[in-house]
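On clarity, I found the account of how folds are encoded harder to follow than it need be. Since the whole study asks how a given chain folds, the encoding of that fold should be made plain. For illustration, here is how one protein appears when written out as sequence plus structure tokens:
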Amino acid sequence: MNAQLPAFDSALPDCVIELPHAERLSAAERSAQLAAAEEIQRCQRALSKAGLNVVGELLKGHDGFYEMNHYPDGDVFDRDSHAQYYYHAHREGGLEHGHFHTFIRGQGIPGSLQPLSAPAGSEPWPSGDEAIAHLIAVSMDAWGQPIGLFACNRWVTGETWYPAAAMKQLLPRFGIDHAHPSWPANLWLTALLQLFRPHIQALIEHRDQVVAAWQAAHPGEDVFEDRALEITGYLPISVDSWVQVLNQAQGVQP
């Protein structure tokens, strides 16, 4: 997995990411996202009082932070929701310290949601209980704050490829409800994916558009294994800024 923080928002300039608009969301959706923001703030406050942050919680007990290694060892998995995540980095420098990869594993994916089939001649994709859907990656800075979201091509994560419509149904299923390696870190990440669900949905829809356009421009090639297509789209994020937009759409006075 070699994804790196991009300096662009779309792998193809003609495929524009449709940014979410808070006023187009229902009042119930905005309320749910604002509740998630409160959870994020509670988790960060609890950690900061002890001089800690989310990223540090994942690295504790490790002898250093090494590129490409998964943190914590063995990833984090919830056997009830079948959600999974890990944190890692690729190289030093830039704004990004590292990023989360978030997934739903096969037993958490309803049978009614069907993946695409691997192109003829390609290695089989994970299937059945071994299937795995990559939801989104979350970029973090060196201070343990989220700075962006990105979607990527299949080869980056070795996932089973579910179309955007199916992926959007999987997003609410992500939840890590236990204390390993850190209760506040797990709650924080769960809430972050709730708060920025509109942004994640936009990136997933855009991902499929980019893959389709790339395939059309490279007929006869397996787009899902093309190393020239790595990150399909990226959006910067700010918890405080999105909360302000949500409150304005809800008519909440600052």
